[in-house]
Amino acid sequence: QGQLVESGGGLVRPGESLRLSCAGAGLALDFYGIGWFRQAPGKAREGVGCIGKHDGTTYYADSAKGRFTISRDSAKNTVYLQMNNLEPTDTADYYCATDRKGDCMKATLVPMWYDYWGQGTQVTVSS
To answer: Measured between alpha carbons, how far is residue 65 from residues 27, 58, 68, 69 in Å?
Structure first.
């Protein structure tokens, strides 16, 4: 059975950047829309952004707009979440997930829309 493997998390200072990776193991990610989500301690899992499978359409939550970018590298079977100008409020566990329908829009950026999930990678933003 295929799985997703996130990596790239860590401890950074406010204003710094991180790039998270979501690699498919036994899953060809080009056949899926990919969503990025995060969950802070004591809070519900929330959508950060997504990339569709059909035309590479992206959508970002308001908290991510202008700072985060999602991209695909088909040759590496990997989807990236580039996060710039990080803030302490970005501290959370970050997860990627697949959407076999391939959509990417505000209405579908909810956990129940997604199928396979990775194990998560922790991001801490602190001075």
So the answer is: 28, 11, 6, 8
